[in-house]
Design brief:
By secondary structure, the protein is mainly alpha-helical. It contains 12 helices and 2 strands. It has a two-stranded antiparallel ribbon with strand order 1-2.
Length: 285
């Protein structure tokens, strides 16, 4: 993951300050600044600090993440596992107990049935994305037949517009599908998905979440840049992407979902910082 580090850049300094003010004394992070840490805020916060070149060390945060795991190596949920293990990764640490069996078991449970995807999950690929990412981070080898089944399952949701999604293609689902396939060593260049990415480009803000719509939110900019990076495609409106992201930053240093002054969250701040990191990398291609 390329770091976006600009020591004289005020937006970066403000983002660091925003994140650190949401660090809990008991360990972990909470975007609404109470002593109520949660896995997602903690993982996104650690990722932001990593991207911005901050060497963060905190024993309480380390212990908080480790304690999210049960002694049998399992977690309360796949997402709890994802945020805990990824958070530990940014701290250059590993879980106390081997989670391999738990991760592989859940890959088998979720790779096929669309009805098993929770209603609150807006991307059908998010669970697989998390599980395969964890395999990549922990260097867990996925059996060939399971890998083959996962690839075929994802490819079954590739649409005629070269994007991915259930019912219709979306930029977020496409970016997660591409990332998962790339982790599985699938030749994503052969998919020609840059055609769909182009359909999502708009000159006003950079990207929209679905072609011919006005879905201009920070996660769509992020998804478009991630997909473009995977496909080695240089977006046409990088300046507009950068401007949109910067306009999402609030006075408290955090970033909101849109440019209309919404509430800052650590998750949206992660999308912003990672987007600027990806844009920084595009300039050097």
């Amino acid at each position: 993951m390329k770091r976006f580090y600009c020591p004289k850049c005020k937006p970066a300094e403000l983002a660091i300050d925003y994140v650190m003010k949401r660090h809990c004394q008991v360990g972990g992070f909470c975007f609404y600044r109470l002593e109520e840490p949660n896995g997602s805020d903690t993982c996104f916060a650690l990722s932001i600090l990593h991207l911005l070149g901050i060497d963060f060390r905190d024993d309480n945060t380390l212990r908080y993440l480790i304690n999210l795991q049960s002694k049998d190596g399992s977690y309360h949920s796949i997402f709890t596992a994802y945020y805990a293990i990824k958070g530990l990764y940014f701290l250059e640490e590993k879980p106390e107990y081997d989670p391999t069996e738990y991760i592989i078991k859940n890959i088998g449970n979720y790779k096929f049935n669309i009805d098993r995807v929770p209603a609150e999950v807006i991307s059908i690929f998010k669970i697989l994305y998390c599980l395969v990412d964890l395999c990549s981070v922990l260097k867990i080898k996925i059996a060939h037949e399971i890998k083959h089944d996962i690839v075929n399952s994802i490819l079954s949701f590739k649409n005629e517009d070269t994007g991915f999604g259930y019912i219709r293609s979306t930029l977020l689902e496409t970016s997660q599908a591409l990332a998962t396939l790339e982790w599985l060593d699938f030749p994503v260049d052969a998919l020609n998905t840059e055609d769909f990415i182009r359909k999502c480009e708009v000159p006003s803000f950079g990207f929209t979440g679905i072609p011919n719509t006005s879905l201009f939110y920070i996660e769509h900019i992020y998804g478009g840049l991630v997909a473009s990076n995977i496909m080695s495609y240089k977006p046409r409106y990088t300046g507009q992407c950068a401007d949109f992201v910067r306009y999402c930053q609030n006075n408290n240093g955090g970033f909101s979902r849109g440019t209309y002054g919404g509430i800052s969250t650590i998750e949206n701040t992660y999308y912003a910082v990672h987007s600027l990191s990806l844009l920084s990398g595009l300039k050097h291609r």
